[in-house]
Design goal:
Blueprint lengths: L12 H8 L3 E5 L7 H13 L1 E3 L5 E3 L3 E5 L5 H8 L10 H9 L2 H4 L13 H21 L2 E5 L1 H10 L9 H20 L6 E7 L5 E5 L16
Parallel strand pairs: 1-4, 5-6
Antiparallel strand pairs: 2-3, 6-7
């Protein structure tokens, strides 16, 4: 804050945090969206290992590991990964990084690591992870759920975006599977628990198939007492 205002004596949020935890990992997500002044600050940190706030107090960054993420080049990777193909040319993402970041900034980075697009098998494992969480919640409500392979492939196809990754998966499960189950859990066939198979039909609509409860066996006839 400027002199005379509340907070003037307080240090910056970043310098304060680093001063309290001088051994840490600092994650700067989607760094390409940062204000240009932030890049000037990072140049100071990467050059001298310290950062000085407005009050002249220095924070020591020599034991801080800085990790920055960026979506630079992600669009070109997404275009080439449509249909789960892998025709991306080596170095394509670096061209995008060169266009977005200055040479002064790039030359101070220790390494640039590119993350390849997820292949179909990995996406199915992500689907299994989300469904496992749902299954655990249903088990608490005495519901035994079975998820068909067709459903898993549907979620892998519709819940994965080449640019956004698997982020839409949770929303898709919420809007389709969880919403359909909620009505049955509250007012329908799963109020007292039960078994349900969750599938998709030919129109890619989620359907629930319920297993009829097993009829109770009739009591055995009493044997006559001699």
């Amino acid at each position: 804050a400027p002199p005379g205002y509340v907070g003037f004596e307080q240090g910056g949020l970043l310098t304060e945090a680093i001063s309290k935890k001088p051994y840490a990992v600092l994650l700067l997500d989607e760094i390409e969206k940062a204000h240009p002044d932030i890049f000037n600050i990072l140049l100071q940190v990467m050059d001298h290992g310290t950062l000085t706030d407005n009050n002249g107090r220095k924070a020591d960054f020599r034991n801080i590991v800085i990790v920055m993420t960026t979506n630079a080049g992600a669009e070109s990777l997404a275009k080439n990964s449509m249909g789960f193909t892998h025709s991306v040319k080596a170095g394509d993402e670096m061209e995008a990084i060169k266009k977005m970041f200055t040479p002064e900034f790039r030359n101070r980075l220790d390494a640039v690591i590119s993350f390849a697009a997820l292949d179909p098998q990995i996406i199915l494992r992500v689907v299994d992870k989300f469904l496992m969480q749902l299954d655990e919640q249903l088990t608490e409500k005495k519901v035994e759920a079975q998820f068909t392979q067709a459903l898993k492939e549907h979620l892998a196809k519709k819940g994965f975006d080449p640019l956004m990754g698997a982020r839409p998966m949770a929303r898709l499960i919420q809007d389709t599977i969880r919403r359909a189950l909620a009505d049955e859990l509250l007012f329908g066939k799963l109020v007292h628990g039960g078994k349900v198979t969750i599938d998709v039909d030919e129109n890619e609509k989620v359907v629930l198939r319920f297993e009829a409860p097993t009829a109770a066996s009739p009591p055995a006839a009493a044997e006559p007492v001699a």
